[in-house]
Amino acid sequence: MQIFDVFLLEAIVNGILLGGILALLALGLNLIFGVIDVVWICYAELIMIGMYAVYYLHNVYAWPLWLAFPACIAVVAVLGAVMHQLVIKPVLSAEPINQLLVTGGVLFLLQGVATLAFGVEFKNLGISLPTLQVGEMYLSFARLIAFVVALAGMIAVYVFLKRTYLGTAIRAISQDRSIMPLMGVNPNRIFLFTSALGGGLAGLAGCLLVLQYDIHPAIGLTFGPIIFLVCVLGGLGNMIGGFVAAFIFAQFISVGGYFFHLEWGYVIAFLFFIAVMFWRPQGLFGARS
Amino acid sequence: MTKSLRWIGVAALALAPLMGMGEYPLHLLVLCLLWGFVYTSWAIMGRLGMVSLGHGGFFGIGAYGVVMGWNHFGLSPWLGLPIVLVSTAIVAFLIGYPCFRLKIVGHYFALVTLALSEIVRMIIVALRDQTGGSLGATPTTALADTSWSIVALQFSSKLVWFYIVLGVWLIGLWVWTRVDRSMARLALEAISQEEDAAASIGVNVTKVKLAVTMISALLTCIGGVLYAQYQLYINPETVSGIGISLQMVFGAIAGGLYVRLGPTVGAVFTLLLAEGLRLALGHQIHGLDTTIYGLLLVLFIIFMPKGILGAATQLWDRRRGAKALATAT
């Protein structure tokens, strides 16, 4: 029996492509957690809103995609900032778990609003991108684009964090939150900016996912839990860790799904997550506090 | 005085359905008590700082375990019950022991347990040949030519269910009280505030936390069994996964985590809200109920973190304190 066949190779490559998207999502969440110390349980719902934004701008208002995508990113970025101002800011000094739960409330709120405004029917852009043949493998062009753009987005964020004043301030805060006032930085401004940046990344992910998946109000629940687990696996707030963990997790889903069935891929990935938590509770790459 | 009042309240509740209550109000009453029981079970550990998002997993094991046993093996729910309880205990131990040993708390605990409830949901969906997958499952009916079957734990009369659920709910409150009055509670409160300090004065943190978790998980599992047998329809999305886990947390928080009847008040509140919105708006406007539900949750956590009953008792205590002060001076 030949185990290393072309389908397995295809599964591995697809896993890498999925890893790129997961890494992008994990980066947004990690950025927010690192700076503000809050886990947005509703992060995937922001992506869902982004997907609807692209759909409505493109299919209903007939905007070209090159205009709809930046608009989508802007919409979700604003949503992220609004969310921080209205929801997170009032509970910043409350118990950490209340901060987690309040975003859970936003999860239901956004789902409800999406159902109200857009209905429960599945929607899609109606664009079918070609399939790419590489050797004997068939790869989805949409996934390939998503991977490349996600990588480019991450590099852009990385350069921003490394090279600009604001980026340096953000990195400093995510390392030591208590120094912020000492450095004469206005915390609320940084928080708002980070939330907008995190939202913008969710918007970018929405643009990439809308090319591959049908949109419906509950779509966030299908990848929301995966994003949190990737972040925890890499060490909450650790951006490099989240990046690596995304690719590991994606391989479990993709290759596990190849050997058994898609859901079993997820089950295996989740079990792996729990096992890792018991082995390294601070995450694969987290520093022990 | 308050004790006799309490018994009068329970008696009034038990007699209420005999006063010629309609089917629909009775149905609501059963659901209030059932969810009240489940939220109370969650709150047993939640109020001590262990915010679990894994209770959807325990609920799902109870609901699906018993129904699958009955449908595929003809196993009576009475025999299925001990099996799912043992399974739940094992799962709760496997997840709880390492968590508490390694001091996984706060966000990390919530997210690790979230993985558990998602695993249960995924397994139910993945076993679609047996469970029916996302379409859900219905216990094979035993009520074809009879109105009740004790072996199948199926009753067409809502009144029977009312008394079963009332009994279970009272047991839930009793357990809550027992935990509340035990020495362990003081230890646990110490833990929820400062774990290392609690350990340093000789509290076996892991053991105490594990015991409370097991109690809470087992009661939740019973809730799952009752839910499946009462509704006679289960679905992986409604009995497991992130949705139901958050529902339990929010129900308990909306009512008030730190008072005995708080979670029940939360159940009554969320249920009446959902039903009220449904009746007022009909089925035409999809999503409005979820929107208002989500909005209220956000407002509750921001403005009333102690919950409805918690805030009310606080206000009451303050009033009484002020009055006592006024008469004293």
Share in helix of chain B: over 70%
Overall, the morphology of chain A is: globular
What is the CATH class name of chain A? Mainly Alpha
Low-confidence stretches of chain B: none
Taking strands numbered 1, 2, ... along the chain, how are they ordered across the largest sheet of chain A? 1-2
Content of β-strand of chain A: under 5%
Structural class of chain A: mainly alpha
E-strand count of chain B = 2
The total strand number of chain A stands at: 2
SSE topology string of chain B:
HHHHHHEEHHHHHHHHH
Order of helices and strands of chain A: HHHHEEHHHHHH
Compute the separation of the termini of chain B in Å. 27 Å
Largest interface: A-B, 50 and 48 residues
- Into how many domains do the coordinates of chain A divide? 1
Largest sheet of chain B: 2 strands, antiparallel
- Report the biggest beta sheet of chain A as strand number plus sense, adding barrel if it closes: 2 strands, antiparallel
